Amino acid sequence: MTYDDQAIYISAYLYDDPDKMLKQLTARDDFGQSDFFLVILNPNNDGQNDTLFFVFSSGTQADAVANPTFGEDFGWNAVWDSAVKMQDDGWTLEMKIPYRTLRFEKQDEPTWGIQFHREFRYNRARYTWNPLDPTQGNPGLYHGELKGLNNIEPPLRLNLYPFTTGIASTFDGESETDIRFGMDLKYGITENFTLDATLIPDFSQVGFDNLELNLGPFEQTFREQRQFFTEGVDLFSKGGLFFSRRIGSAPVGQLDLNEGERFNRPSTTKVLNAIKVSGRTPNGLGIGVLNAITEKTSVAIVDEDNDVVRNEVIEPFTNYNIISIDQQYNGNSSISLINTNVLREGSFRDANATAVVSNFQNKRNTYRIDTELRMSHVNFQNQSAETGFSSFLFVGKTHGNFRYSFDHRFADTKYNINDLGLNLRNNRNDFGADASYEIFEPTEKLNTYRINTFVNYRRINDPNRFARFNFGANYFAVLKKSLDAFGFNFRMSPGKQYDFFESRDGRPFIFENFARVGGFYSSNYNRKFAFDVNFGIADIFEDGRDFFSYEFEISPRYRFNDSFLLIYNLNYDNSLGQRGYATEILDNPIFGDRNRLRITNTIRADYTFNPFHALSLNFRHYWDTVAYDGRFFTLKDNGRLELTNLTRENLSNDPDINFSTWNIDLSYSWQFAPGSFLTALYRNQLFNINDNAMDGFGDSLDNLFMQPALHNFSLRLQYFIDFNGIKSVFKKNKQVPLQG
Q1: What is the number of helices (H) and of strands (E) in the chain?
Q2: How is the chain split among helix, strand and coil, in percent rounded to 5?
Q3: Residue (of 201, 401, 196, 345) closest to 279 by Cα position
Q4: Confidence class of residue 727 from pLDDT cuts 50, 70 and 90?
Q5: Under 8 Å between Cβ of 547 and 577
């Protein structure tokens, strides 16, 4: 190791048998089947806030930030340099880690935390420079110390990411083109705090969501794919009040329509800009502020003749804001205060939520206590306002082979954080307990194994009634010789279970004696051909019910060479005699018995030319049919169903469903300079939904291909500008050795 005014430099000679080494080429942050060398730096030397830099034997990079609360966050990306070279007796590497990738204050004689890891992929063995105990505490507590970084100045951290995107799309005979210009910015306000801003946001190259048919009472959600909202959001995730997909999501406004009027609700609102400021002082105080603004969105109201009768605002100009304060202490604990706020212009609803979060670990790292107290307030303007409360408590043993924990979750009926957070349900009073046994030293046949059991007792808070009880167990193991993994799981809900949400009106729906068993087998991915198999069966043992469900998933993969990987996945899920909500008549829920068949096919193909050029294909076809048997029930107040003489003709809509989607994402990425990318993306989408539930797979696919297809092509050029790098051209560096 050595250093100069710009960066820390590291080189390593990693001895190994070249015939055993694995060096699959992958995209950034994708571990694949490759050996790696890891450097961990902690400028505060606090055992909690680490910065990780991975170099793989293939030449690929990965980086992350980590702390005990949220683990490793690979959504964080920095710009740094590395190179590798194969040798007759192993491989060598060089790394340049600029100071702009780290946050630290000027110190006369600094002491940083440091650790090195090396992993041999062929046998999954990992070695560390300073020994650590995997049975107790977080890895950051076992770092060594790096001394000698004298007289370094924290750099001016100003990084600019100007970009331009060209877009062309066609749908149902109509074509559109657009060209966009914008810039993202990172600016170090102080040595420890950074401003991130997307001044003119462009999320056109975000992939399609994996749509599924939602028959349940809760909303369908999807993972965040926009980089600004996935990178460096650990402080904002405290307390579970922040769900970034709310920013720019579909409008929430409700419109009063006259008879015969209708409108099309947009799927998104435009994000005008977003900024976040975050950082942590040397004494462990973390502060984060995030603010985003979305523009006013209007829709056209049309009558029965498709004539536009008026335009109305369905989502006003809206401001989203989060403030998070987190104080770490004891090398392993923290206490946090988080507030989220949504302000909508005019008479639309506003919302506010606050949480106090504590994560306490005793000094010996043997026990942990987590607590969360949350309050929500929604102002419906001219209608009313509601204030709700929620809490969470976890107490657990966190060391040794045998561990256990207890937890409690509570939420009243008015708890609602869904303007900026995600809470699928409230009105709960749940108790749980877990116990597990895990080995950390291999046995004669097993590399590792883990057994855990759990029990849950659930009530609703208002009225104070029993809801559900279940218990189960899981087993996971890895074979020592082959490194194949396998496992089994079991869960049971004995006796009467009360579902207070399926009815949509708060009345319970009773089902009895649910049981499920399943398992999986995953062969070692080091082999050119490998596969995963998952299976499960479920049954309900209840008089008058004829329910049976089975599912299986198979995913073969083949690695043609270090550049080309192909993965196919088939998921087959068949539920016979399923019973649930079908429709409603005069605000009364109507239930029915149904058979549901879901088949999902996905293909992933990656061809990585080198660490800077990659081609990727993702294909997904999802098909889902729901066929009711023609018998329909009303729900009685005691939770039981009563057969009616209703027929399909009595219902306003046929409840049968045939739902199908088709997505293709084909992308090419070229990193032509550090932090600078040229990315081409072609996307194709088909969608169809009707009530032809008896159509087979082939007929449904034919109907899908008859629908208009969305074709979208975008080309994005992003360039990385480091202001500090411009200055260094005119400044001479002085290198000195380091001591560890």
Answers
A1: 3, 40
A2: 5, 55, 40
A3: 196
A4: low
A5: yes
d(CA 531, CA 558): 9
Is the pLDDT at 614 greater than 50? The verdict is: yes
Q: Which amino acid is at 515?
A: A
Helix (H, G, I), strand (E, B) or coil at 121: coil
CA distances from 683 to 171, 567, 710 (A): 12, 19, 8
Mean pLDDT of the 72-95 span: 94
Which residues are paired to 339 by β-bridges? 323, 354
Round to whole Å and give the CA distance between 392 and 594: 37
Was domain 2-155 assigned CATH 2.60.40.1190? yes
Res. 252 pLDDT band, cuts 50 70 90: confident
Burial (CB < 10 A; 0-12, 13-18, 19+), residue 690, is middle
Burial class (CB in 10 A: 0-12, 13-18, 19+), 735: exposed
Q: Is 639 left (phi over 0), alpha (psi -120 to 50) or beta?
A: left
- The residue with tokens 């159509």 is 695
Looking at the chain, the domain(s) classified CATH 2.60.40.1190 span: 2-155
Question: Kind of pairing, strands 548-559 and 81-87?
Answer: unpaired
Q: Give the whole-angstrom CA distance, residue 491 versus residue 487.
A: 14
pTM of the model as a whole = 0.92
For 217, the 3-state DSSP assignment is: coil
pLDDT at position 740 is 44
Q: What pLDDT does residue 82 have?
A: 96
3-class secondary structure, 158:
strand
Taking the C-alpha atoms of residue 709 and residue 435, their distance in angstroms, rounded to an integer, is 51
- β-partners of residue 320 are 292, 342
CA distance 103 to 43: 7
Helix (H, G, I), strand (E, B) or coil at 241: coil
Q: How many other C-beta atoms lie within 10 A of the C-beta of residue 326?
A: 22
Query: Looking at the DSSP assignment, which residues form a beta bridge with residue 438?
Result: 450
In single-letter form, the type of residue at position 540 comes to I
β-pair type (509-522, 529-540)? antiparallel
Residues 6+ apart with CB under 8 A from 307: none
H or E segment and range at residue 704: helix 697-705
508: Cβ contacts below 8 Å, ≥ 6 apart: 465, 467, 498, 499, 500, 639
Q: How far is CA 132 from CA 142, 295, 348, in A?
A: 5, 51, 54
The backbone torsions φ and ψ at residue 191, rounded to the nearest 5 degrees and listed phi first, read -65, -25
Amino acid residing at 273: N
Backbone angles phi, psi at 557, to 5 degrees: -140, 145
Checking if the pLDDT of 65 tops 60, the result is: yes
Strand (E) or helix (H) holding 703 = helix 697-705
Give bridge partners of residue 489 from the DSSP assignment. 474, 518
Closest CA to 299 of 271, 259, 262: 262
User: 320: closest CA among 359, 347, 352, 354?
Assistant: 352
Q: What is the DSSP string of 597-647?
A: EEEEEEEEEEEEEETTEEEEEEEEEEEEEEEEEEEEEEEPTTS-EEE----
Q: Which of 291, 292, 288 is nearest to 336 (CA)?
A: 288
Position 625 scores a pLDDT of: 97
Task: Return the beta strands (E) in 218-332 as ranges.
Answer: 271-280, 285-294, 297-302, 308-315, 318-329
Rounded-to-integer distance, Cα 432 and Cα 556, Å: 37
